[in-house]
Specification:
One of its GO terms (biological process) is response to stress. Residues 11-142 form the HTH marR-type domain. By secondary structure, the protein is mainly α. It has one domain (3-141): Arc Repressor Mutant, subunit A (Orthogonal Bundle). The protein has 7 helices and 2 strands. A hairpin with a 2-residue loop joins strand 1 and strand 2 (92-100). The longest helix has 23 residues, at 102-124.
């Protein structure tokens, strides 16, 4: 295997560059959200649950592009900490409804201003047109 192939992948691989950027952003948001006791993943998950009606586990898994097993594992600490409630759906006992508790809503409300400030700082560090173009490109890939 020629070393040139390694350099090609290093320089051109979209997956590699998206993963690196995602890890850097994750570290930044994890640090920012630490005072409210959330990780970036927990914040995103809780935001996905912040809906007028309790979503099903399957709907949230699709929204976050997660498999159900991974989502169930991610919900366990939130449920343990009293931030999320998981109940059987009344019309289909096999389906699970996910709801933010009162405590979960309070924590999420305290996290949103932190997210806004951190997000604004990240966008301010990018050239003006990049954030919208980046969002559009990532949406197209997903």
């Amino acid at each position: 295997m020629p070393f040139e192939a390694t350099l090609e992948v290093r320089d051109a691989c979209l997956c590699l560059h998206v993963q690196r950027a995602a890890r850097a952003l994750a570290r930044r948001f994890d640090e920012a959200l630490r005072p409210v006791g959330l990780t970036h993943g927990q914040f995103s998950l809780m935001m996905a649950l912040n809906q007028p009606r309790s979503p099903t586990l399957g709907a949230v898994a699709r929204l976050l592009a997660m498999d159900r097993t991974t989502l169930t594992a991610a919900l366990k600490p939130l449920e343990r900490d009293g931030l999320v409630s998981i109940q059987a759906a009344p019309d289909d006992r096999r389906s699970r409804l996910l709801t933010l508790t009162g405590k979960g809503l309070e924590v999420l409300a305290s996290a949103v201003p932190i997210w806004r400030d951190t997000h604004a700082a990240i966008e301010a560090g990018l050239p003006r047109a990049w954030p919208d173009a980046l969002r559009a490109g990532l949406l197209a890939l997903s």
